[in-house]
Amino acid sequence: MKLLTKTNRIYLAFSLVIYLLTAVAFYQIIRLVIYEEVENRLRVEKRDFQTYVRAHNAWSNIPYFVENKINVTPVVGRGARGEEFSDTLILNRYDHELIPFRQLTFYQPIQGVVHRVEIRKSLIQTYRLIEVMTVAMMLFLGLLLAGTFWFQGKLSGRLWYPFYDTLARIKGFDLSSGASLTLDSPQITEFRELNDVLQKMADKMQQDYRSLKEFTENASHEMQTPLALINAKVEQLIQSEQLTETQTHWIESIYQASRRISRLNQGLLLLAKIENRQFNDSQIIDLAGLLTEKLTDMEEVLSFKELSVSMQAMKPFDVMLPPALADILVTNLVNNAIKHNQVNGRIELVATTDKLCLSNTGGQLTSSPERLFERFKKESTGPDSVGLGLSIIRQIGDSYGLSIDYQETEGIHQFCLTRSQP
């Protein structure tokens, strides 16, 4: 959910609560004011009634109180009481509908007898006035809420435009392209400071990326040349007939160490290139078909180690990868399955459109499965293993949207590739 959407929803919910409370409070205030006015008029009618009674010492149903209803009833054996206001309903004799009235009850002695006097005033016009005022108030508040919400959305969109513009430019920024990140200098101080920080970070990242890229390229060329020369000279020494057995052993040790350094250098440089996305020629590749071809190419090695291969549900498993990395990925998977297999073992390949699994027989795992993909972590103790094969596989997967899962069940080691969820 976007920040503006979340903010607008919170603002709308808060405004609705405030407006509803305001509407209820407004209704109660109007009702109290109108009721107070009605009660004041009833008190005026009470004084008129009392004035009439004192003047005539009697009461007759003359049309003195035209606007109101009045009911005078003698009360026997009761003393005088104070006045009391109440609401009541009276049936209209014309349309037989109940009409609301506000009633004032008080006690007045007439000719020595206490009478209960009830003066009523119709509230139907008052209720209609309250209803009209409430509806009008709700309508105006609703229009105000809608207008405020619309205005705030437009205003927020304009205020936050520099932020979304910066976000779009950052999304399109590519370190490997060589183009620098260019950000505007908006008028809003916070966004301007944010752009300045991001600009400095992007420039520093580009500088570090160029430095690392130059280092890996230089190391790839400059370090491999002397290592290749050392290996060539050592091979010549090994073929010499004038060496003693001890010297031959020392030279073989030097040769193995030199080859190991060469493989370590190649592996670490490859990991650095993958992390820096220096492989830009991605295309759709069927990893299932590529694994099948690799197993076919390794047929002599498989026969030598007496390994059987089975393939099931062979459907294309298409992924977006640079061809060079795809070849490295399947080569490392196959080499790992062969290297850690056992005599008369088997390799099984299962491919579907959503999952690709390569399994092999082998010994029990001696370390934690979570650590298999760490750099320089290896199960084999042979001199040919440098412990980077599975790390390279994991790095390729992380960089190009592939999940690499491993599980071991009763001596069956299985590596599965699936597409990562976006």
UniProtKB/TrEMBL annotation:
Its EC number is 2.7.13.3. One of its GO terms (cellular component) is plasma membrane. It is an enzyme of class 2 (transferase). It catalyses: ATP + protein L-histidine = ADP + protein N-phospho-L-histidine. Gene3D superfamilies: 1.10.287.130, Histidine kinase-like ATPase, C-terminal domain. Keywords: Kinase, Membrane, Phosphoprotein, Transferase, Transmembrane, Transmembrane helix. Pfam families: HATPase_c (PF02518), HisKA (PF00512). SUPFAM superfamilies: ATPase domain of HSP90 chaperone/DNA topoisomerase II/histidine kinase, Homodimeric domain of signal transducing histidine kinase. CDD domains: HisKA (cd00082). This is histidine kinase. It comes from Spirosoma radiotolerans.
